[in-house]
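Design a sequence for this backbone.
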């Protein structure tokens, strides 16, 4: 991996989280949130994704686990 690369591990509960009309959050929304937050620390990207999912669901509870791990390579080679 190169500096700035981001590796995303997620459970299906993230992308299958649904709103009241049963539309799913899906992988494209996950990608969009991560790309919009890519210059932020990994911990903040995780927080941004969870916030986006909560806003998308608008009070509809998760039916599944929602696990997310972000690994980001820093410019000095650390993760």
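Sequence:
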């Amino acid at each position: 991996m190169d500096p700035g690369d981001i590796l995303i591990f997620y459970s299906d509960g993230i992308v299958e989280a649904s709103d009241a009309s049963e539309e799913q959050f899906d992988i494209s929304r996950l990608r969009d949130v991560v790309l919009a937050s890519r210059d932020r620390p990994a911990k903040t990207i995780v927080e941004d994704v969870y916030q986006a999912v909560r806003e998308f669901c608008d009070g509809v509870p998760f039916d599944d686990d929602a696990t997310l791990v972000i690994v980001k390579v820093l410019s000095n080679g650390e993760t």
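Residues 37 and 50 are 12 Å apart (CA to CA).
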